[in-house]
Amino acid sequence: MLADRDIRALLDSGRLVIDPLKPDRIQPASVDLTLGDQYRSFDRSLFRRVRLSAIPDDLTELHDGSDGIVLEPGRFLLATTAETVTLPDDVCGILHGRSTLGRLGLTVHVTAGLIDPGFAGHITLEVVNVGDLHLELWPGDVIGQLTLHPMSSPCQRPYGSAGLGSHYQHQRGPTPPRSGAG
């Protein structure tokens, strides 16, 4: 895992890009990321069976979250980081929730925390309120922390390389699920 000085060196070299980034967002072993102003919700009134190899395009609806989001207990939605992140071919990232948010019952990246080397774009967050409180989320709230992990060597085919099926490369805003995405 990279320490703050290593994170700053990667940023200064231009090999790692986090935009926008305030210097105080760099923590001892991570970078704080903030909530963007859009989210996607699933229509909870419809019962739908979804085949994982043929995910329909109309599962979610895009919403403007600039006036905040009230996340009720048990609710799941897709949100986004305000920052775009570009990783070099020899560093992977892992997005973690924040301890204070977890103590309120908020999970921000349920299963897909790994950010592959070579990824570029906004990070879509899988947000669930597993607590008992109605939680208000506002654009600009610190929502998670990205740890950066050096690889043993640069990968041969970074995320986004031809033939990989990198469905989320250069994504903007909260991106719905896509068939065959991994």
UniProtKB/TrEMBL annotation:
Positions that bind dCTP: R98, S99, T100, L101, G102, R103, D116, T124, L125, E126, Q145, Y159, Q171
CDD domains with a match to the protein in the record: trimeric_dUTPase
UniProtKB keywords: Hydrolase, Nucleotide metabolism, Nucleotide-binding
Catalytic activity: dCTP + H2O + H(+) = dUTP + NH4(+)
InterPro entries registered for this protein in UniProt: dCTP_deaminase (IPR011962), dUTPase-like_sf (IPR036157), dUTPase_trimeric (IPR033704)
Active site: E126
Coiled-coil annotated spans: none
EC number, as in UniProt: 3.5.4.13
Top-rank lineage group of the source organism: Bacteria
Region (Disordered): 159-182
Record-level Gene Ontology MF annotations: dCTP deaminase activity
SUPFAM superfamilies cross-referenced by the UniProt entry: dUTPase-like
Pathway membership, UniProt: Pyrimidine metabolism; dUMP biosynthesis; dUMP from dCTP (dUTP route): step 1/2
HAMAP family, per database record: dCTP_deaminase
Family to which this protein belongs: Belongs to the dCTP deaminase family.
Function: Catalyzes the deamination of dCTP to dUTP.
Binding partners and assembly: Homotrimer.
Protein name as catalogued: dCTP deaminase
Source organism of this protein record: Pseudonocardia hispaniensis
Record gene name: dcd
